[in-house]
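Researcher: For the record, we're logging two predictions in this thread. I'll number them. Prediction 1 follows.
Model: Prediction 1, sequence and structure:
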Amino acid sequence: MAVAEDWNIRRRPLWQRPDLERHVNDLELASIDIMIEMGAVHVPESYQDGETPITEAEVRNMISSALFVANVDPAKIYAYLSTGYLVTVENVGNWSSCQLTAWNKAVAAYNESSAAHA
């Protein structure tokens, strides 16, 4: 099965291939899951019952909190907050070239900014 997946990834255009440096990787995704299971990210009870609507701002806050406590690369957190997209190695093929360009530019901008301050 892994061979078929590798072949499918290699058939994608370069801009749609997973990049562990730029996209949220499997280890970071596992850390997010663990932090959520441990209760490190607060999800109010009212949202868990499915009856109370949740705003986009509240969702963004919960996701960014999960990324932070899971120790995801700050450049990727910045890209998420800047673009509103969470590009992972698993979903990179679902984004348009324009969306991936915006994500990659945000990652690069953060990295350039942090390098300038180092």
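Researcher: Logged. Prediction 2.
Model: Prediction 2, sequence and structure:
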Amino acid sequence: MLTQCVRAGRATFLIKVKSHRGEPINERADTQAEEGREMSDDDKRRDDRTDGMTFEVRRGDTMVSSVWTNSVRNAFRKQAGWAKLQGARAAAAKHWTARVWYRHNQRWLQVLKEGTEASKSGSFKDEREWGKKCFQDLDQRRMGRPATSTWSTDFLLREGSSREEIGKLLKSKSIPWQRRRKLLQVVTGTFPCGHQLV
């Protein structure tokens, strides 16, 4: 199967999943194994297979179950994207604290006006909005260093920028996959070379 994926030009990732680490599919298997172990011998059915893997998500007070569908896959991707976005914004908040809240990262000096305003308003308490504000402020200041961890991440977080054009290019079937993959590698800083792309 791996050989077929490679020949088809598809990427394959093998990930070792440690048990009892909160991975949803593994936890579901553990739960079902425990339920099966606790059943009486009369109720056990060892020869029946399930129709497929199911996923559960809590929506309000109810639990919704689903087999693997495009919606489930897209929900996983969306949550992974949000996690990455929050990580980048957290880096921006950390950089903002070091570069703006205190002068030149010297904490014994007096806090700057922007830091005082953030403290008084309490805006730093909402991590999502705080990271977004910090990124926007650092991006406008143009301090010669990326607001997040890389210039590519800054570009992709910048609202109203040309990342929509990158999306169009990546979706275009008329452009060979190898070229689209190179663009992804350059934007994510993972182009296979011995130097870091900045």
